[in-house]
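Dear H.,

Thanks for agreeing to be a second pair of eyes. The structure we're designing against is below in token form, covering all 1261 positions.
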């Protein structure tokens, strides 16, 4: 579709411009029901936009009744729908005003073509203020045949005096699309109730999600000439400047507000303090926005993609920059480089290609052009089209600049192999082998930026840890991240991470840590896998001695409470649970068995004896408090190792990284009883510097998180214990089907001369390497200069540095062998040149001269490097020192000079035999990952998995927790009644088995045609709605001692998560009236999806606030309070009246595949459960009933209160309502997690309507 020729846009009204189509869908069935006809929801959809004479005939055929009185039914539908609209009002569809304003400003005609009569059409449009936008209003009454006939659109074109091909028709329904297409118009569909099928898509010029997206179809496609590009640049610069000015004005206003607050409020005034905190938070965010706008203004973009989306059927073009730029109507004029579609700029060639949007799927486009720009000082210097982004010629131009300038160009020059790593899903693990200068550290930083941009719901800055080998590297990373729009990332050395994992056991006044000596062969054995396995075995033996595994019998009765096999099975099945947590849980299980044994049995115990027994079984395995010290325990382990012939030093108060790793493991494995979720994703740079001991301990302590691991085995400077290959680590970390090993072969850092010099160093080694592909960029030869004495060595060093400074080099490094030499050299050089901070813990990478030991240069690069005095004594000819010198040489971007006195190390002085070839690791190129988020399964696979999970749940419930619920047997007096029912007792059970064995076939429609093998999910429960449970199973056993205190809170744009020792609670606003409450037991578990709506479809306003005592989440209709001290959830209506609260003492309990949520219903509160029929509401006040619909079509049970709320329980299995205070009150639901929806609505009919429309089953993927 060429929009240049478009002179008018003709709109359908209902469902397109105004949100009334849903009411037709609702009131056609109600009107027909009034006259004795039953219409399904699917049938109601076929009535959309259907005009005369088709509608009457359609209904007569649908119900096979030639005498159906269409006029009477339609009039009644108009009456009841009119009453509803009068009461509730009509909403304008999203983007309508924006589109109409745009069309009016562009001089494009607007018209209406609707199936609604003229009187109501004009009434609706005037009521909503839309009437004056339109040049023509065409109604179905003006033509002989309504939609789907083309008459109405042909008539509209004649009234506009335009050809159909000069008009766009905007429709939401199939009937409307067919009408406009038949008339010859260009049809744009904005789906309202259903998506277009394959046949309908063939009739569309475009399909859009909202009306304002149509504006994009009219946007002028940017030209290709230099004049066109210069014009476009000036336009975008103007927009960027306008955005920058607005940002500055916003900050000025906030500062004024803060000044006013200081004048008006006292420092201790609570209201003033709250306003101050809000204003400062806004100021902080606006200041970050200002930084983004300044970046956009400085250099608006660097690339462009032209493509065609098959669904849109029109060419599109987007510019790509460091940050996104939007115009005044919030339309993007420049895309952020992290946007999903921007990936094709980096990794795709011309033609058909794909890009992936997290949790939405993969989309295909036809890429027509990739263009790269050189923009400097608001001037377009050059541009070129290329199939490859930033070819070697452009890269050479960028890399020839100094270090500081290169950083600013990185985003523009990201290569395909780097981009694949950056955009890999953070929910998977990746290990990256990158040669020196391949951009490993840079890729890791861009990866974090990409994840935070695209996975906002799942990851926040505090969900990341960056682990580096030294503080200088970490300080460099921290300084660069804000350039990538990343703030608040926690970064630490490996030692600091393990100290963090010791929590309260680490006393910094008593303990300290030190670096392990790289050449210490004696203690280096602590860095390997064998050492970890010894520690693991030592801890397991300790646990075996601490937890008794004997049969436990009940006093007097002699009944077996817990067998040694059951104890052993529990211990075996929970390898990631600490010893103390296992003790507490075994106590829980045993106490539940004990309570079950003494409840309702003929054997009774006197109160005093019962109290003693209670105490005995409550702490039979121990009280869960470990009274030893992790340090003492570790000392015992080391002494045991010495006895086994593994001699290592036994530290007193100072520990190396492997001591700390062991201590953290002991804490987690033995002592911990209150697990804390530390992080979601760990980024490790220079990973080859750490031995497998650290990774195995980390993998255990941070169970459940994912990793991005970057390193180069050729740069392993920890000779005795670092990683010389990746094989062991790959087996430990890369266990998932989406986990991957990536390789960065290209080196972008060094000139050819420096690269050849460094490779010659490597050739002195006797180890395998990964192949290197250098970028062809020439520079000065590497200089090696001998000095006669120490004074001359120092003088030449000063002369070289000063010359480099005169040449404009901003970052210069003098690299020494160790910390002592670096400190000494820095002290001497200070007399002649300015030296950057020499304290290695405080030093930060930046402009100037840095004097560093070689080990502290890892991950860094400098414009110029001087290798200071590399003699044979300091660097003997062995593999370890080969790697050390390779690291030193590869730090240089442009210049490398070697100054020495005495005998130069043979690694640099001696020539390698010409015939020697380095062994190379086999390497596979990383390919684009299959999309992690959406795995496709067949209906058969889904059903099979459901059966497996169901069987597993039942087995677990039989093992621990309450016994399986069974129906109370029918007495003889009820046999006739039982026979009259369709599914009760044994009949219900057999029906349940049939349901599990084969999915229910969907019944044929009323035309008698079978729709094929479509399957429909049913409720996997043997209990019919309203069945009465046996009182014996109503009492919930084995609980009441769980810790629900909220430990931490995480807010995303879709939900709020609250974590306690017992598990994870999530509150998700679905609509202003509906709140989803989800819970899963265990701190390492995650909330999963249900068959129903997981989060809001459309954005609406809601807030989350935290105080000392509670967390408040509020929408327009509902306020939710969660008490921090107990995790109980309370619900309030829009008037802040309390509607419902969970039980404060114990809000929830989860065991054996069943979930109990305990509520505090008022004694006088009347409660009903929704049955299958429209008028079926069963009274459950102070009763116990099954409220799930066993064997029926899958739907949520719904409990309604006269107070104006409902509870919809998201379970595919049995749901039991217990309103009897002796046992609860509670709602029990089968499933791996607890999930219910709170609905706030006073009117019962409206509440049921919200339940039916909002909480429908979600499609499977």
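And this is the sequence the design step returned. I haven't edited it by hand at all.
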């Amino acid at each position: 579709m060429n929009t240049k020729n478009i002179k008018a846009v003709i709109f359908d009204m209902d469902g397109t411009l105004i949100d009334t189509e849903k009411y037709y869908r609702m009131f056609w069935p109600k009107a027909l029901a009034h006259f004795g006809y039953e219409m399904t929801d699917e049938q109601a959809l076929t009535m959309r936009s259907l005009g005369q004479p088709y509608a009457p005939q359609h209904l007569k055929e649908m119900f096979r009744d030639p005498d159906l009185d269409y006029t009477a039914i339609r009039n009644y539908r108009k009456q009841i729908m009119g009453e509803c609209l009068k009461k509730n009002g009509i909403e304008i569809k999203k983007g309508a005003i924006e589109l109409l304003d745009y069309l009016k400003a562009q001089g494009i005609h607007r018209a209406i073509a609707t199936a609604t009569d003229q009187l109501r059409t004009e009434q609706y449009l005037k009521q909503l203020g839309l009437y004056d936008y339109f040049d023509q209003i065409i109604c179905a009454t003006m033509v002989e045949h309504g939609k789907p006939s083309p008459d109405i659109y042909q008539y509209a074109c004649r009234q506009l005096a335009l050809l159909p091909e000069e008009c766009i028709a905007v429709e939401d329904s199939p009937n409307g699309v067919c009408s406009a297409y038949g008339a010859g118009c260009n049809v744009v569909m904005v789906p309202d109730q259903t998506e277009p099928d394959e046949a309908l898509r063939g009739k569309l010029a475009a399909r859009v999600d909202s009306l304002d997206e149509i504006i994009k179809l009219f946007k002028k496609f940017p030209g290709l000439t230099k004049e066109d590009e210069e014009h476009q640049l000036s336009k975008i610069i103007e927009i960027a400047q306008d955005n920058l000015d607005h940002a500055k004005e916003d900050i000025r206003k906030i500062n004024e507000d803060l000044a006013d607050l200081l004048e008006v409020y006292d420092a201790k005034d609570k209201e003033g303090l709250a306003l101050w905190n809000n204003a400062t938070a806004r100021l902080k965010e606006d200041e970050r926005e200002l930084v983004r706008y300044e970046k956009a203004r400085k250099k608006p973009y660097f690339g462009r993609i032209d493509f065609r989306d098959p669904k849109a059927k029109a060419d599109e073009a987007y510019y790509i920059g460091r940050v996104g730029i939007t115009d005044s109507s919030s339309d993007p004029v420049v895309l952020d480089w992290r946007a999903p579609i921007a990936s094709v700029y980096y990794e795709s060639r011309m033609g058909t290609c794909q890009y992936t949007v997290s949790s939405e799927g993969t989309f295909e486009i036809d890429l027509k052009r990739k263009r790269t720009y050189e923009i400097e000082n608001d001037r377009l210097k050059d541009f070129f089209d290329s199939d490859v982004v930033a070819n070697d010629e452009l890269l050479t131009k960028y890399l020839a600049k100094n270090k500081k300038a290169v950083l600013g160009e990185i985003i523009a020059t990201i290569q395909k192999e780097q981009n694949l790593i950056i955009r890999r899903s953070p929910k998977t693990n990746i290990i990256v082998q990158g040669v020196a200068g391949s951009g490993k550290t840079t890729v890791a930083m861009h990866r974090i930026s990409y994840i935070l941009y695209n996975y906002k719901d799942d990851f926040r800055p505090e969900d990341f840890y960056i682990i580096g080998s030294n503080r200088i590297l970490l300080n460099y990373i921290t300084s660069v991240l804000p350039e990538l729009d990343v703030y608040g990332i926690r970064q630490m050395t490996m030692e600091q991470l393990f100290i963090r994992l010791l929590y309260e056991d680490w006393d910094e006044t008593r303990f300290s840590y030190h670096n392990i000596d790289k050449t210490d062969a004696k203690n280096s054995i602590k860095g390997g896998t064998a050492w970890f396995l010894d520690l693991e075995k030592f801890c397991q033996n300790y646990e075996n001695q601490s937890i008794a595994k004997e049969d436990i019998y009940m006093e007097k009765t002699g009944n077996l409470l817990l067998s040694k096999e059951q104890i052993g099975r529990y211990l075996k099945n929970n390898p990631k649970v600490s010893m103390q947590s296992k003790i507490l849980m075994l106590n829980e299980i045993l106490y539940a068995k004990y309570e079950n044994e003494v409840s309702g049995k003929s054997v009774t115990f006197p109160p005093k004896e019962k109290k003693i027994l209670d105490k005995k079984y409550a702490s039979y395995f121990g009280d869960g408090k470990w009274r030893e010290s992790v340090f003492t325990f570790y000392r015992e382990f080391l002494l045991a190792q010495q006895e086994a012939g593994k001699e290592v030093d036994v530290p007193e108060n100072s520990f190396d990284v492997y001591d700390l790793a062991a201590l953290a493991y002991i804490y987690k494995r033995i002592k911990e009883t209150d697990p804390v979720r530390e992080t979601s994703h760990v980024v490790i740079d220079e990973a080859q510097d750490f031995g497998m001991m650290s990774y195995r301990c980390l993998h255990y302590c941070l169970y459940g998180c994912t990793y991005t691991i970057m390193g180069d085995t050729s740069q392993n400077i920890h000779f005795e214990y670092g990683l010389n290959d990746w094989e062991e680590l790959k087996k430990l970390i890369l266990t998932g089907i989406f986990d991957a090993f990536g390789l960065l072969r290209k080196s972008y850092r060094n000139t050819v001369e420096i690269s050849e010099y460094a490779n010659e160093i490597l050739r002195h080694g006797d180890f395998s390497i990964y192949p290197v592909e250098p970028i062809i960029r020439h520079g000065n030869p590497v200089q090696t200069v001998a000095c006669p004495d120490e004074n001359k060595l120092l003088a030449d060093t000063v002369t070289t540095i000063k010359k480099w400074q005169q040449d404009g080099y901003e970052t210069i490094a003098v690299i020494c062998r160790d910390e002592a030499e670096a400190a000494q050299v820095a002290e001497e050089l200070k007399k002649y040149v300015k030296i950057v901070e020499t304290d290695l813990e405080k030093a930060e990478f930046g402009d100037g001269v840095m004097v560093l030991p070689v080990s502290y240069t890892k991950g860094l690069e400098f414009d110029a490097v001087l290798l200071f005095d590399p003699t044979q004594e300091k660097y003997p000819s062995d593999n370890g020192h080969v790697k050390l010198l390779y690291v030193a040489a590869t730090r240089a971007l442009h210049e490398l000079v070697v100054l020495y006195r005495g005998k130069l190390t043979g690694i640099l002085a001696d020539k390698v035999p010409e015939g020697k070839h380095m062994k190379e690791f086999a390497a596979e190129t990383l390919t684009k990952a299959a999309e992690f988020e959406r795995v496709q399964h067949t209906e058969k696979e889904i059903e099979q998995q459901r059966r497996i999970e169901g069987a597993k749940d039942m087995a677990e419930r039989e093992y621990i927790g309450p016994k399986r619920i069974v129906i109370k047997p029918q007495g003889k007096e009820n046999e006739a009644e039982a026979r009259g029912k369709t599914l009760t007792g044994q009949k219900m059970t057999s029906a349940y088995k049939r349901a599990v064995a084969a999915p229910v076939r969907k019944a044929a429609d009323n035309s008698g045609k079978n729709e094929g093998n479509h399957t429909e999910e049913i409720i996997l429960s043997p209990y019919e709605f309203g069945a009465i449970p046996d009182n014996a199973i109503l009492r919930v056993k084995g609980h009441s001692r769980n810790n629900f205190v909220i430990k931490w809170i995480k807010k995303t744009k879709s939900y709020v998560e609250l974590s306690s020792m017992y598990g994870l609670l999530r509150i998700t606003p679905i609509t202003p009236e509906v709140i989803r409450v989800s819970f899963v037991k265990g701190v390492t578990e995650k909330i999963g999806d249900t068959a129903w709506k997981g989060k809001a479809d459309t954005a609406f306003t809601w807030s989350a606030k935290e105080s000392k005592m509670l967390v408040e989440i509020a929408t327009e209709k509902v306020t939710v309070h969660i008490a921090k001290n107990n995790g109980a959830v309370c619900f309030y209506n829009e008037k802040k009246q309390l509607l419902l609260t969970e039980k404060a003492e114990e809000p929830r309990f989860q065991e054996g595949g069943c979930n109990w949520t305990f509520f505090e219903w008022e004694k006088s509160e009347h409660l009903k459960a929704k049955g299958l029929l429209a008028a079926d509401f069963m009274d459950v006040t102070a009763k116990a009933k099954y409220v799930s619909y066993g064997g029926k079509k899958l739907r949520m049970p719904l409990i309604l209160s006269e107070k104006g709320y409902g509870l919809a329980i998201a379970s595919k299995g049995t749901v039991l309502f217990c309103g009897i205070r002796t046992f609860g009150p509670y709602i029990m639901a089968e499933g791996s997690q607890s999930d219910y929806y709170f609905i706030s609505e006073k009117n019962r009919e409206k509440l049921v309507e919200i339940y039916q429309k909002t909480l429908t089953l979600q499609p499977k993927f």
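Two observations from my side: The longest strand covers residues 361-376. Residues 1031-1037+1075-1100+1131-1254 form a domain with the Immunoglobulin-like fold (CATH 2.60.40.1760).

Warmly,
E.
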